[in-house]
Amino acid sequence: MNLEALLAPLQYDFMTRALLVSALVGTVCAVLSCYVILKGWSLMGDAVSHAVLPGVVISYLLGLPFVIGAFFFGLLTVSAIGFIQSRSRVKEDTVIGVVFTALFALGLVMISKISSEVHLSHILFGDVLGIGDSELWQTVIAGTIALIVTLLLRKDLLLYVFDPTHARSIGLNTGVLNYVLLTMLALTIVTALQTVGVILVVAMLITPGATAYLLTDKFSKMMWIAVACGIGSAIIGTYGSYFLDGATGACIVLVQSIFFLLAFIFAPKHGQLARRRQQMAERADELGEGGPPAAPRPVLTRVRTSSKGQASD
Amino acid sequence: MMALDVHDVSVAYGGGRLAMRQASLKVRGGSVCGLVGMNGAGKSTLFKTVMGFIPPLRGTVQVFEQPVIRAQKAGLIAYVPQSEDVDWNFPVSVREVVMMGRQGKMNWLRRPSAIDETMVEESLERVGMSAFAERQIGELSGGQRKRAFLARALAQDGRLLLLDEPFGGVDVGTSEAIISLMGELRREGRAMLVSTHDLGTLETFCDEVALIADRTVLLYGPTGEVLTADNLAATFGGRSPLHAPPPKQPAQQMEARP
Predict the structure, then answer these.
(1) Which residue segment(s) compose the domain that A120 sits in?
(2) Does residue A6 sit in helix, strand or coil?
(3) Rounded CA gap, A25 and A21, in Å?
(4) Domain ABC transporter spans what residues (chain B) (predicted)?
(5) What residues in A contact B72, CB-CB < 8 Å?
(6) What is the number of domains present in chain A?
C-alpha cells in the first residue's frame, strides 16, 4: 500500500472529524480509567453506560441535547445503586446488575415503542463517522469539563481512592469526592457514547488504565501511558475501520484489547514473561545453583522440663 | 489538656441496633492509651466515631477541645491503618504515601511546598525509611510497611494519633522500634490511641488502657489498675488471656480463648 492510499481517508471531512473526536474521547476516558480500575468500579462503569439509554431516548423526544438526558440518567443510576445498597442486605454487584439492566430494558422498550428515527444501532454501537455538528459540540464540551475537573482534583481523588480513611482524617470531604468521581464517570460515559456506543463504552473506561497499571508502579506515569493508549487506539481504530469498512467503535476497542494483551505478556515487571523469569531466578537462588549458599538453619532442640505447671506455650 | 474526650457516645450504622452504647473515654495529651477487646467488640467502631465517620446519636466527641470536623481540618488527627486495609498493589511510592500526610495543608492545587518536602524527608529519616523512599509500597516487608504509614502520620504532624493494630504481623525488632517511637511522640506531647491484640506488651508502652466489650467501654484508667485478671476475664468473656492459669486439659484452654 503506498502513502497516497494511506492518506486517502484524510481527504474526507468526516474522517478528520472522527479522528479528532475519538482522540479526545480516548484521552478523557483514559484519564478516568486510571481511577476506575484502582477504585474497582469497572462494573459501575458498565452499569452507568447501559443505564443512560432511556435518557438518550427522552432527550430525543423532548428535543434536548442527548448529553443532558444521558447525564441525568447516569446520575440517577449511581444514586439508585447507592440508595438500594445502603438499605438492603443485597451485595453491591447484585444491586448494580439489577439497576442497570432495569434501566437498559426500559430504554429498549421506549425505543421500540416510539420511533424509528432514533437509530438503535447508533446508540448501542456508536457512529463517530456520522457525527453531526450538534453531537460534536456536545461531545467536546462534556469531555472538556470531565477532563479539567478530574485533572484539577487529581491528587485529592487519588488520595480518596487509595485511602479514604486518611483522606477523611485530614479533613477532606470524602462524600463530595465520591460524588465528584461518580459524576465525572457519568460525564465521561456520555462523552464516549457517540464514538463507541453504550455497549462498548466500558472498554474505553477500563482497558487503557488496566494496560498502564501493568506497565508501571507510578501513578503519574500510569496516567500518561493510559492517555497514550487511549489516543493511539482511537486513531489506529478509526483509521483501520476505514480500510476494513467495519464498525469504528469496535475497531477502537479491539486495538485497546491488543495493547492490553501485549502488556499482559511483555510488561517489563508485571508481564507474564517477566514474572516467569523472576520465579525461575528466585528458585535457582533457593536451590543454590549458582546463587549464594542458603543461610544455615538455626538449630532448635527439645527441652524436657520436670514440673508440669511450667509447661511453656 | 484532653487530647480526646469521648463522652457518653452512642452510634448506629444503618439499622436500629446500636454499634456503640454510651461509651466514654478520655486520653490526655502526651499519653498512650491501649484499646483492648475481642474482635467485634467495638474497637473499630470507636475509631470510626473518633474520625467522624459515624455521627453520634447521643453524646459528644471532642479532640483537643474541638469538634471532630474542626480538629480534622486543622490536621490534628492522624490515622495509621491496619495492613489489611491497604491496597499494597497501588501504584504509589513510599515518598508519595508520606507526602499524603501533608496534603491537607497544601493549597488547592496540592503542590508541595519546601516545608512539605522537608517534613517528608525528616519523617522518613525518623522511621529509618529514607533508603526505601522510592520503592513501590508492595515491595516492602511487613515492618517497613508499618514504618511507611507511621512516617505519614509524622509528616502530618498530628497531635492525636490513631494506630490500628500497629503490631500486627511485624517482627520483634520493628515492634520495639514502634514502641520507642511512640515513647518519643509521647514526650513531644502527642496522644495516641492504639488498638492491639498483644496483651503481653501493653504495660511496656501504655499509660492507660481501655477495655472494650459488648459495644461499649467497660473501663479505662492507668494500665496497672485496669489490667487485672477479673477485668480481663469480663472483657474476654470468661477468663483473662493474660492471667490464664495452667490448663488441666487442653480442651479447656480452647474454651478460654473464644
Answers:
(1) 3-274
(2) helix
(3) 6
(4) 4-239
(5) 168-171
(6) 1
